[in-house]
Amino acid sequence: METKITGRCCVYTLVVFAAIVFLAPAVFAQGKTYEFKLGHVFAMTNANHPGALKYAEEVGKRTKGAVKINVFPAGQLGGDRELYEGIQRGTLEMGLVNQGSASGFDRRLEIGALPFLTKDYETADRQFFQGEMWVGKEMAKYCLEKGLRILAYTENDFRHLTNSRRPVKTVADIKGLKIRVPEAPLMVTCWKALGAVVTPISFPELYTALQQKTVDGQENGILLTYSSKLYEVQPYMTLIKYMYSTPSFMISEKVWRTLPADIQKTLQETAVEVAAFTVDLNRKEVQKCRAEMEKAGVQIIDMDPKERQKLREIALESWKSVEPYVAKEVMERLKKEAAL
Description:
By secondary structure, this protein is an alpha/beta fold. It has two domains: 29-156 and 246-286, D-Maltodextrin-Binding Protein, domain 2; 158-244 and 289-337, D-Maltodextrin-Binding Protein, domain 2 (3-Layer(aba) Sandwich). It is 38% helix and 18% strand. The protein has eleven helices and eleven strands. Helix 1 (48-62) links the parallel strand 1 (34-39) and strand 2. The chain starts with 33 loop residues before the first strand and ends with a helix.
């Protein structure tokens, strides 16, 4: 299906995190070519996969074939942790990776996924896509220190709760549920505090774990739950909107440093434009995916505001587990952002 980068990309102008030298004329025609692998965990029906394909297509066009990007979706190259490790070492050139899943390597990367930091899309846009984008820039700085360059953020939306055992209407209903979370210490801490029995599992293994009842539930958003068909083995979904998730187009810094400046410029600028396309597509798809899951028999519950406030108060305690790893001034700004 032919896709088109929307005009909205001019609004989502991501600050380039390191200076790029602009050359004229371009050196694309000098004969050297580059072939990169780009891995991600998203299903081919998830908005992030068309985004990855569009990125590969546009980079190929704009470099006149000097750069060829091969996209490997659905965890073919491993989960987020494996992708992160590969990009860090330079054995994998690129990825569309959830930074929070790599927080076992650097706890500072959890700042973008703190529970109840991001309340709505407007806040998300300000934190990651428009204006100051200070949360996104802070995480990009941490990643670069580890050898991963963030080119642009995309969206994995707000995270909720699904399970196969019972409708979850109250915080008390969570107690005893076996919940899968990514391999992220913050999420483990948060869900243990909520009374769940927590099991970190790599995303490519999640469907099987749910199907075989190794775990009862998981905490991804509407679009990912639908596109990865998790709803087929999860009859109950509770909308708690407890966390906002942002994967990012990443490239290995080892690879980046070997590239001519005009190719660096093209990779950067194209990532920003395609990320905007992907975010737009995600937001258009969410309500449709919710309707499709309901049509398939999933019971979708909007948690009562009083119960969600109880959940918020418990979840916010998990912030303390991140504080020792983050500069005091950054943590204070995050708390102000969340109105703590």
